[in-house]
## 1
Amino acid sequence: MDTPSFRAMGHRMVDLIADYWDDVESMPVLSKVAPGDILAALPASAPRCGEFDPAHPDAFWNALAADIDRVIMPGLTHWHHPRFFAYFSANISGPSVLADMLCAGLGVQGMLWATSPACTELEQRMLDWLGEAIGLPEQFLFRAGAGGGGVIAGTASESTLVSMLAARARAHAASPAAELVAYASDQAHSSVVKAAMIAGIASSASDTMHVRRIAVDAQCRLRVDELERAMQADLAAGRLPFFIAATVGTTGVTAVDPVRDVCLAGARLPVRPWVHVDAAHSGAACVCPEMRWMLDGVDLVDSFCFNPHKWLLVNFDCGCLWVADRRPLLDALSITPEYLRNAASDSGSVVDYRDWQVPLGRRFRSLKLWFVMRAYGLDGLRAYVREHLRLAELLESLIRSDDRFEVVSPRTVNLVVFRLRGGGDVANRAMMDAVNASGRAYLTHTTLPATHPVAPGAVVLRAAVSGALTREPHVRDLWETLRSHATLRA
Amino acid sequence: MDTPSFRAMGHRMVDLIADYWDDVESMPVLSKVAPGDILAALPASAPRCGEFDPAHPDAFWNALAADIDRVIMPGLTHWHHPRFFAYFSANISGPSVLADMLCAGLGVQGMLWATSPACTELEQRMLDWLGEAIGLPEQFLFRAGAGGGGVIAGTASESTLVSMLAARARAHAASPAAELVAYASDQAHSSVVKAAMIAGIASSASDTMHVRRIAVDAQCRLRVDELERAMQADLAAGRLPFFIAATVGTTGVTAVDPVRDVCLAGARLPVRPWVHVDAAHSGAACVCPEMRWMLDGVDLVDSFCFNPHKWLLVNFDCGCLWVADRRPLLDALSITPEYLRNAASDSGSVVDYRDWQVPLGRRFRSLKLWFVMRAYGLDGLRAYVREHLRLAELLESLIRSDDRFEVVSPRTVNLVVFRLRGGGDVANRAMMDAVNASGRAYLTHTTLPATHPVAPGAVVLRAAVSGALTREPHVRDLWETLRSHATLRA
């Protein structure tokens, strides 16, 4: 495609995107297509002749735009919809999309410093900016020069995996034959178990001998007494506790594990296990100083991750991982074959990010952090987060005002966890399914732990208030939708 | 950022990208900055106040554009430069950038079918289109309904890792306690060793007991007799051969391993090892029927990957992995916690791609394959590849015409491997460094295996002719640059 055609079509794509953002509120949040509908709308094979003809660029654009409308749009669940309250958000923003465009247009690879120095050094600086912005201690920043630093790791699953690999490298350097055990609360993200499966530490998802799922307290926080008991039992049985994942904002109810006590428990063992903090969603709130209570103890941890692509206006993927000491990470992931050697890398004077991750190639993702932090500034990001916190508080108070409902878990950040009091799991699932099928809002559920004081083992609903377009009327609309469905069922 | 401002800035970003493509040829290919230069040009901390003001959107654009020019551009090694001949290419194209824009603008997540059905089903269909386009047997396509299918896996490193994990799951299902051994030629990509380290199968990069690096023949192809010998020795010692990586187009010299014979050797063992084909770069050439000799035997393999983001006009990241049987992959990677369950997934009627990969979240990357295959058509992609093959042949003939140079490895696709005859490794490295430092072209080197018949253990230069903007004058220019540096040194 020639550049004049790209220019013309690019302008139209920008307008298509802007139109989508302007219109998305009018669409059903959750796609209504049935399995196979999209497949059936697409030809079985690739076209033999290209559809783009530089003499008639409009024809290709028109064909594409029509198919986006006909095939793609009905098949989308709109994550950018202002009434999307499911899972955790995957924020997008204008500055971030501009950065993604530039990343695509430059098309450089950042696997080594030399393959595009700006890609590596902007990333180093942005991880310092962001680490400082959320209040991480200095040892996690490159500027401290103490061996720590950060990397864009894609997703929190990848951050957890590479942290576990670094932990294994450190543990095996001291005890090569040790049988390793990892620990996380029974509310921790599935990626902890998945990482252990990938690493060969757990033989399957149900290998609770090698990934101990620790019971939680009444607020769904990891119980440190249970953690200590489990670690001591493993030590007594000749196994080595090597990795603890503490969660700051669990997926189910945004519970915040007691990071400091977890670290202190680890430090009392003969060999200190690696402590990794998974703050994938909730870490974003720490741009606000008043939310940094969640980070108490983070000065003692080995690694910390959170995803600006969830709740900080940066497009997916942009998960950030910081380590206090990069050496175990490099021990776990560095392989330097001949065809990747060059003078700058050999001298050790630069960072080669391929050794901080599973893949070799990498995009210029730090542009997104640069554009977003510059566009909004820290004050802008704080105002953004605080407004969602206010709206979550509002939703909570609306739910509390209607005694057919109950809030079942204390709100720590922007997630409200609630249920219908009557009718049990069946009624709550039915209400959720009805709300989602209406297209008016999208919610997901979780199941509380069996030890939960209010609703043990119950199916409860989650509303995460973190959409970039979500404003007070959307939260009030969600509440009206919930109320009307509760009335229908009464 | 409000949509009118995004619209205005988006148009300007499209123009910035198009201007970059028009101008890139005038820039030095390899960045000339020194370590730390970019870091020093960036403030130490994020700004407190946002720079974007909807009342003056131009001011933010002007500041950004000036910094892109001042800070970023000098720090780029230009992968889209028409005289970039290093590594393998990372192609970009107009249709692919348009698709990446749409992907960013929609911002949907494809972790589950339900989280955006179009994201999953378009990917399924595109992997069928592309698999058929390169001549993969029917069992790798979803449409065959036989349990096979494809996935966008990011990079070939990730494809190799998840294939190895699936292989382990299959091997351990039969022999839970078996000590596993993987095999690849000593010319295979470092990602095989890295995958084994991640999986905990190899204890380090030098653990040759668990990743056997098999010697190659005079053309750098895996020697099947050596593979059989190694597998038999491991079996005799009580270890289980579980995974063989065959390379179609090695990184060093694009050697093509004898896939059929590798598979037959595996099939003669008591337990058949998983055979994975890594065609990361060269697989793209198989859009041309005359290049499909490289795939002989692929009907017998378990998994196959190639990266359209290298040489097929699709932006990074878009690495494609196909498996003949998805079940071992799901056994290795599937974990289904409560908060990810939904009716469509539970019924088994849909594909949930989170179970085909390491991360949970995923972007709508199949849009890139859709736009590119539609824009160019199979005929257009074939013409694109054939022109690079012609230019590589031309470069090879130019090198052969000057007896100060020699072509040291038979050309299989678009990579020419050569050296200066006199002066040995020192002279060849010096010439490469001089060419690269000139900014006129960018080449990388490799070291031939110690068993190589022409130049055992020698440092040799590689020129990969696969840039989207690379035309005959650029190849002739590379040759003149090389010649003039050889003359300077004579």
## 2
Amino acid sequence: MTFAASALADLESLLVDGGSVVVAESELVRHGEDFSIHPARRPDAVVLPASTREVAAVIALAAREGVPVVPFGAGTSLEGHVIPVAGGISLDLTRLDRILELRPSDLTATVQAGVTRRQLDAAARRHGLQFPVDPGADATLGGMAATNASGTTTVRYGGMRRQVLALEAVLGDAQVVRTGSRAAKSSAGYDITSLLVGSEGTLAVITELTVRLHPVEESGATVRAAFPDIAAACAAAVDVVAGGVLVTRLELLDAWNVAAVNSYSGAALPERPLLLIDITGAPAAVDENLAAVADIVGDHGAADVVLERDDATRRALWRTRHDAAYAVMATAPGKKPRSTDICVPVSELPAAITAAREAVDALGLDAGIGGHVADGNFHVAFMLDPGDEGEVDRARKLDGLLVDDALARGGTCSGEHGIGIGKRAYLAREHPDLIPLYRKLKGVFDPHGILNPGKVLP
Amino acid sequence: MTFAASALADLESLLVDGGSVVVAESELVRHGEDFSIHPARRPDAVVLPASTREVAAVIALAAREGVPVVPFGAGTSLEGHVIPVAGGISLDLTRLDRILELRPSDLTATVQAGVTRRQLDAAARRHGLQFPVDPGADATLGGMAATNASGTTTVRYGGMRRQVLALEAVLGDAQVVRTGSRAAKSSAGYDITSLLVGSEGTLAVITELTVRLHPVEESGATVRAAFPDIAAACAAAVDVVAGGVLVTRLELLDAWNVAAVNSYSGAALPERPLLLIDITGAPAAVDENLAAVADIVGDHGAADVVLERDDATRRALWRTRHDAAYAVMATAPGKKPRSTDICVPVSELPAAITAAREAVDALGLDAGIGGHVADGNFHVAFMLDPGDEGEVDRARKLDGLLVDDALARGGTCSGEHGIGIGKRAYLAREHPDLIPLYRKLKGVFDPHGILNPGKVLP
């Protein structure tokens, strides 16, 4: 459907708290795409609600009229989650940007869905606390909860599902519900909180979250270790995990990624497979864990091991890591970035990464491999012309090979990017027995089928 | 319904893998009660399946005949979960007692539902690993997952929901499903795993679990601190949490509990409010955290502070803590133990415990207060004659007062014992907006309404 002038007037009349409707061309374009290669599709209108009440009113109208509603945050999704494939309303939640309450003694904060992770982290740091989940982009917390985002610190703190204690959300019938509580744990009823986290806007629109905060660590150090080959780097990562060494980040960059990073950031990292390992805590604990890590990387033949204790140098090194995605983009301006996202049991990592490298080479792709190896999650990243059928076909083949390999190893098709548009067939491959159940759950939460249609469910 | 001889023969014919049907009086009695005060009710038959296939066959028959199926593990539930209030089949899963796979490098194990936590922990320790969740009783892991059990180590490692990576479960229509994966994290599809954890056998019968294991800590120490009053003990606990001190256990016993423990265990603990604090990790880290804890408890007027580093002495002290439930029972032989289970945001703990003590005194109950205070979860424990209406009425009044107080403080009616029979009205008080959703989910997973009827849903 498209919006007639009268329908727009109807929408505007619902926004009693200062929200607005936007149909400016540039905003329709911006809300029709994300960071993925999936074809853009403009929404019919962008609605920026200013309150939960307005979100509910918009959803009530959409349910009545059968109009799709696609939640939109920072627009940094990697799997097309925010693309309104069936048109309708792009529900931009970025005006819900208030930190409602920060409770340092409870190590929790309650925020509106449009608050970004950096905004919350900055507020937390004024109390000696942090919000550690870092998917790279400065995503909104509502969006991060919707995809169960994680990142470099997940090995230590867990991803979004572990952080979210409570939600306010609007269901597909416009009912506003509150799940969970502010208590650190609960055994009260079915866990709707965990069900909505990772549901990618298909079951409800998240409007408010209560999340855990964590104390800022007293001290830290970063180890940068270069290995003779990627298998040795992976084996070292496996041993760090199996040895129970308390690390805060444990990241792999292969030689391809390091070269891209050097070129983009002007860094001078050794262009061999690298592990970047961050260790934080009380000073003595950091020293002990550092010694354990040094032993392990040495055992696996790391030749070039640098230990950084200076905070500014560490931050610069981690900025380099976080810029890796942009470094990849800079290798082929005009193309779009593409990233696989499988996650395997950690012991399977060396074999899985070897298999991935073989698949990349067999397909003739120019790609790097890196990732959150302590969680068994890695990304093959490369650039792609979405208009080049051959390139798209090779990317699809790579996806399929890697997903099949991950599933055969007891892993999953998505470690952190979610299903969105692009992985629906893989979800069916991973959980064929659950798909009918998913459909029934969708029917319970979104009886009119208006919430983010065309996502998650195959 | 009751089972005719022909129905029993039908049941037995389904058990092709060596399972059995039991109708011996003693077994019907044992399967008709748990540790709670809820009235016992015998099942019509006890079925002990020997395989998932047999579980599915029994559920298929029950669905066809409309017979209730109530999963049973160790029978140590505290809220009547395993009592077959509508008769039918008690499905005893204790013969599913095999550890199917233990993967030390992945820090995971896959077990059948009837494996107990101590059985898994002992197997894990042969690899330098542990399974830390400890609800007190040596419960089965299926049962612990079903109630999202937690315990003294939850402040450090999280409760069951955080441990469970994957499940095999049989739905109410006899379909066998597999949720999750063996990967450490996933963003693939709706989180059915977390939904089934804590669903108390009302959505599915858990037959197999993949859980996280954790490295055994290198060293440890235990602090025992006696406080002038319970408010000071609570305030110290709040400061330990807010200060980000890494503790593995942080338990409160009030003077009443300490007296019970001394009498039961022959211990000679100071009969004042005590905090027991366990700190584990690398030696230097333990030292640093010990120093931080010593400072905090000193600031709150702890006079009698004992530091134990000897492992045997520490184990004995923690055994004393774990015996507290039995110590309470020994205060009134012949009566049944009763325990409240609210959980509040940690900063609310001193006020919540003060309010609980006032309620206990106003009702004239002879009760102790203790709990997992770093999580904000505490129990008022006392003995009760279930046949004495006055006593039961006072216990109910206490429950209601405490739940209302917890909810007003942003907490929950159940920190770890679950809803079962006894807290259904409180669940409705806590999540009135979610109850219709719960009912619909129940309909999706258990369309014939045979799985553990009379539990969770009000």
